[in-house]
Each structure stands twice: as structure tokens, then as C-alpha cells.
């Protein structure tokens, strides 16, 4: 993605179909949801049996309920006009901040990270909602002041303060993986808004120093880095997750062992239904399944780039870049961890891993992107000119009867 919104001269008329962006998003979302449902059902079944005493469907039903909520958010959100999203931005951002404060005050720790709250018997991870709120907020404020981003003050107020607030609250819960994704969201938004490169260099130095401090403050973080850098380690202890993840991927071959046939899910591979679900995809669906995942995220990346380059509204351009950095960037981190290219960060694979909060937030974000795609220059006219599938079917049947 290039710096387009901040200082761009009149661009030539966009080429190609204006509805391609929308269909790319719809197709990619469908692929990821279907694969995710199948693999979550398989990988969570053993853990469900152990936790419930015999019910293999328990965790999957929770995921399915989250999918229903997330699809409702996607469908409704994709139908909303851009002006509506601009009006909803303050509510989305400040509401997520309030929830993050609640986590800091009375959060529940899971896996060493305090990033959950319980409301009316349900668990919620506000940091997932904060990703969406921050992306919208940065899109709104940076689009209004993109021509003033040559000064440090304009870069920090109010966008930089918002990023710092979200990062600070997330790091209070020791969730470094989510903090990295938040930083990627900010980088995507500021890059497309036109922030000068020297400020990215400064932010990179500050971020690197902060990361070093945080790494040495947590024993688990230091241990993960040491395991990742070590030439050899115990495959049954420190390296178990990394080793078993690679074993699962390798055992799938080209076509995989078949749906539900994973061996890693039987307790050999920790976090098989969330952080390491990509390994289960490779084991059960083989290289073909993993390539389908990569192609789907590639389709989302192409769709985001089309929105950045083809749309005329700076709010849409900047917000799309932020949302794309979140979804595609987080997918890259998750897959790189499974492949052993990065140390374990504990971030899920969007739309595929189990986790209700992540699934709902990711689907809501795609709903925003689809709303933008529906209002790409020329898209509304193109949609209006195409009869619906139902109308086409009725017309075909009617002609057949008359014939």
C-alpha cells in the first residue's frame, strides 16, 4: 500500500470493474469461514470431550454462535453508508476504550494475559473490538488533518494519543501479540495518510526500545525468544508446540489426511484450535488447504489495495489500510509463527481460529470494507444494473415454460 491519501494529485479514472473489490471480499470471507468452521469442529472436539465429559460439540457451538453474531454484523455493516460509519466512529472507539479500562480494573487472565472480561456470563476480549474502533478513529481524524501531518504535533494529536492509549491498556494485560497488531494498524493508517518517512523511522526506534524493555520484563516472553533462537531444545517440553506444529504441517502432504483425521489435536499440539490452527489445516487439508488460506488473505489484500487506490474518500482509504494491516498482518504473524519464522506471539488466525471475540470483530471489520467497496466509484451503478440472482432464475424459468 502506498502513501496516497495525504498528498495525491488528480489520478486517472480507475480501470476495471468497480464491483471486483466487493466480490473479492465476499469470496475470501466465505472461503475462510468454511475452512475455519470445519477445522475448528475437528480440532476442538477432543478438548470439548475432556472439558464436558463427553460432548464433542461444546466449543464448536460457541464458535457457531459467534459466527451468527459476526455475520449479522457483517451483513448490516456492509449495507450502511460511509456517513453512518463516520458517525459511529466515536462510539466504537471510546466504547472499546471503556471496555479496555474495565479489563485493566477487573479483567480475567487466560494463558498469562489479562485481556478478558465476563459480562452476564459471557467472556469478551475488548482488545479485538479496540482494533476496529482504532482503525475507524484513525481514518476519521487523519483524513481531516492529512495535510498537516508534516509536524510531530499533528501526528501525535489526536491520532498518536489514541494509539498510545490503546497500546498502554493492552500492554497492562501483558498481551504483546495484540500490541504488535495495534502498532501495525497505526502504521497502515499513517502510511496511507501521508506521514513523512522520517517519523516512521523515529517510531521504529521508539518501538524497538520499548519491545526490548517488555521482553526482559516477562519471563515467558524471554523464554519464547530463547526457544526460537536456540539451535536445539527439548521437543517434549520447551519446543513442543513449535515442533508438533511443524510435524502436523508436514504429515498432511499434498492433499492432507482428510477432514477430522488430525493426530495433533489428540493432545500432541497445544492450542490446536486457535494459535496453531494453521497446522491442523495443513495436516487435514494438506498443501492445497494451506494454499487456499493464503490465497484468501491475498484476495483481501488486493481488495484493500483497490480501495486505497480507487476510492476518493480519504476516510475510506485510511481506514481500509488500517483494517487491511490488521487482518492480513495478523494472518502473516500467525502463519509465520506456525512455520517457525517468528517466536510465539499468541495471536489467532483471523476468521479461522476459534474465539468468539476475534471472529465477531474480524467479520465486523470485513463488513466495513464491504460497505466501502459497495460505494467504490461506479459500484452502485453497476450493482443496480445487474438483476439479482432470484430475478434471473425466475426469468429463465418463465422463458422455459413459454418455450
Question: Can you describe what's shown?
Answer:
Peptidoglycan polymerase that is essential for cell division. Its EC number is 2.4.99.28. It is a multi-pass membrane protein. The chain crosses the membrane at residues 21-45, 57-79, 91-110, 116-142, 154-171, 177-193, 200-218, 285-308, 320-345, 351-373. Keywords: Cell shape, Glycosyltransferase, Membrane, Peptidoglycan synthesis, Transferase, Transmembrane, Transmembrane helix. The chain has 403 residues and is mostly helical. The chain has one domain (20-385). Helix content is 70%, strand content 3%. It has 14 helices and 3 strands. It has helices spanning 20-52, 58-79, 82-106, 126-144, 152-172, 176-193, 197-217, 219-229, 240-251, 277-310, 314-338, 356-374, 379-385, 389-402, and strands at 108-110, 113-119, 122-124. A 3-stranded antiparallel beta sheet has the order 1-2-3, covered by helices on one side. Helix 1 packs antiparallel against helix 12 and helix 10 (277-310) runs antiparallel to helix 11. The chain is globular, with a radius of gyration of 22 Å. The model is unreliable at 4-11 (pLDDT under 50).
Amino acid at each position: 500500500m502506498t502513501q496516497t491519501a495525504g498528498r495525491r494529485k488528480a489520478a486517472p479514472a480507475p480501470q476495471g470493474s468497480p464491483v471486483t473489490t466487493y466480490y473479492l471480499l465476499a469470496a475470501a470471507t466465505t472461503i475462510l469461514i468454511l475452512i475455519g468452521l470445519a477445522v475448528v469442529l475437528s480440532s476442538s472436539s477432543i478438548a470439548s470431550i475432556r472439558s464436558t465429559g463427553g460432548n464433542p460439540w461444546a466449543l464448536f457451538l460457541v464458535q457457531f454462535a459467534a459466527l451468527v453474531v459476526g455475520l449479522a454484523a457483517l451483513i448490516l455493516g456492509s449495507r450502511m453508508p460511509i456517513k453512518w460509519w463516520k458517525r459511529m466512529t466515536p462510539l466504537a472507539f471510546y466504547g472499546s476504550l471503556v471496555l479496555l479500562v474495565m479489563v485493566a480494573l477487573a479483567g480475567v487472565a487466560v494463558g498469562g494475559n489479562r485481556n478478558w472480561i465476563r459480562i452476564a456470563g459471557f467472556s469478551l476480549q475488548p482488545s479485538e473490538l479496540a482494533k476496529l474502533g482504532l482503525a475507524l478513529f484513525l481514518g476519521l481524524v487523519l483524513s481531516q488533518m492529512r495535510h498537516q501531518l508534516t509536524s510531530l504535533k499533528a501526528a501525535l494529536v489526536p491520532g498518536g494519543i489514541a494509539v498510545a492509549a490503546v497500546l498502554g491498556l493492552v500492554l497492562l494485560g501483558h498481551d504483546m501479540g495484540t500490541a504488535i497488531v495495534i502498532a501495525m494498524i497505526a502504521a497502515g493508517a499513517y502510511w496511507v495518510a501521508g506521514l513523512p518517512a522520517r517519523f516512521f523511522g523515529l517510531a521504529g526506534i521508539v518501538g524497538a526500545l520499548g519491545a526490548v524493555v517488555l521482553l526482559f520484563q516477562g519471563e515467558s516472553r524471554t523464554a519464547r525468544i530463547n526457544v526460537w533462537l536456540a539451535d536445539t531444545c527439548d521437543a517434549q517440553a520447551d519446543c513442543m508446540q513449535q515442533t508438533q506444529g511443524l510435524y502436523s504441517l508436514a504429515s498432511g502432504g499434498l492433499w492432507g489426511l482428510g477432514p477430522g483425521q488430525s493426530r495433533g489435536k489428540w493432545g500432541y499440539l497445544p492450542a490446536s484450535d486457535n494459535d496453531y490452527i494453521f497446522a491442523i489445516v495443513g495436516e487435514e487439508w494438506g498443501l492445497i488447504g494451506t494454499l487456499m488460506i493464503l490465497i484468501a488473505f491475498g484476495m483481501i489484500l488486493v481488495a484493500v489495495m483497490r480501495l486505497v487506490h480507487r476510492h476518493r474518500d480519504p476516510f475510506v482509504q485510511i481506514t481500509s489500510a488500517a483494517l487491511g494491516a490488521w487482518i492480513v498482518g495478523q494472518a502473516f504473524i500467525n502463519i509465520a509463527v506456525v512455520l517457525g519464522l517468528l517466536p510465539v506471539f499468541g495471536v489467532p488466525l483471523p476468521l479461522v481460529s476459534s474465539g468468539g471475540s476475534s471472529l465477531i470483530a474480524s467479520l465486523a471489520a470485513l463488513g466495513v470494507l464491504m460497505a466501502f467497496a459497495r460505494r467504490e466509484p461506479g459500484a452502485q451503478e453497476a450493482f443496480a444494473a445487474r438483476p439479482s440472482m432470484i430475478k434471473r432464475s425466475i426469468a429463465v424459468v418463465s422463458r422455459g415454460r413459454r418455450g
